[in-house]
């Protein structure tokens, strides 16, 4: 535990330059006395850390210091290499960096995983979109987008992009929307057009609300019990948490799950056809039957 804290101190000083002992104590959730003991331990291990007195004093590292790889555990080294390997998903040139770090960490195999978040058959299109998003996010530049909402409506709006988020198999952009005058989550795949504007904005990410604090909220959920045929087991294991799946004696798969009671869920469940039986709630069974009937009537018209 203490080694982790020593590395945290080192990381904070490398990132921020100078911090006071009380600031470090608050960041690490320890006492000031513990911080001073940890600083002494770093100094004894050869890390050039020093403290200065006065109004602008604090704890600092000597300029141009670089940390010793020995401060990182084997697992942490692997995590760093994985994170850098993941940058390939955004078309970043990381081969040289991987080679250098692999040599420093004495790792022979730095190519053990390939991460690609682009959709099948959409690699070049997604790469262009993510390159524009990266430019806007790093440069703090506004975006002019055409966005398709969940109800199928498209409209043009100017947004201030703050953070790119990957969650539940999809990319989302957390941004301030001038049309709504509030923070919103935009599904990246639904951004139909995108233009990076010359306009820059100065809001810092740490001054924006966290997702949990923003006005974006999850819809109310409905409890469901779904029974799937063994014929679609491959989809069930792809799309549901395996800990939720209850395999039945006949090979069918029972899943108690919570989903929002909206039209998207009805369409999604309809995609399983007769391989799905909705056990509960009865109202959802009626919705799915009505949805199937509407499709049949639409396609049976002469």
End-to-end separation: 73 Å
General shape: elongated
Helix content: 25-40%
Radius of gyration over all CA atoms, rounded: 26 Å
DSSP strand content:
25-35%
Report the uncertain regions: 212-216
- Number of helical regions: 9
How many β-strand stretches? 12
Sheet with most strands:
5 strands, antiparallel
Could you state the order of secondary-structure elements as H and E? HEHHEEHHHEEEEEEHEEHEH
Helix-and-strand structural type: alpha+beta
Mean model confidence by pLDDT: 78
Within the largest sheet, what's the order of strands?
A: 7-6-5-4-8
Task: List strands and helices in order, with pairings.
Elements: H1 2-16, E1 18-19, H2 21-28, H3 32-44, E2 49-52, E3 58-61, H4 74-86, H5 95-105, H6 123-139, E4 141-148, E5 154-167, E6 170-177, E7 182-187, E8 191-200, E9 222-228, H7 233-239, E10 246-247, E11 253-259, H8 263-270, E12 276-280, H9 282-299
Antiparallel strand pairs: 1-3, 2-3, 4-5, 4-8, 5-6, 6-7, 9-11, 9-12, 10-11
What can you tell me about this protein's structure?
The protein is built from 9 helices and 12 strands. Helices cover 36% and strands 25% of the residues. The strands form 3 sheets. Strands 7-6-5-4-8 form a 5-stranded antiparallel beta sheet, with helices on one face. It has a 4-stranded antiparallel beta sheet with strand order 10-11-9-12, with helices on one face.
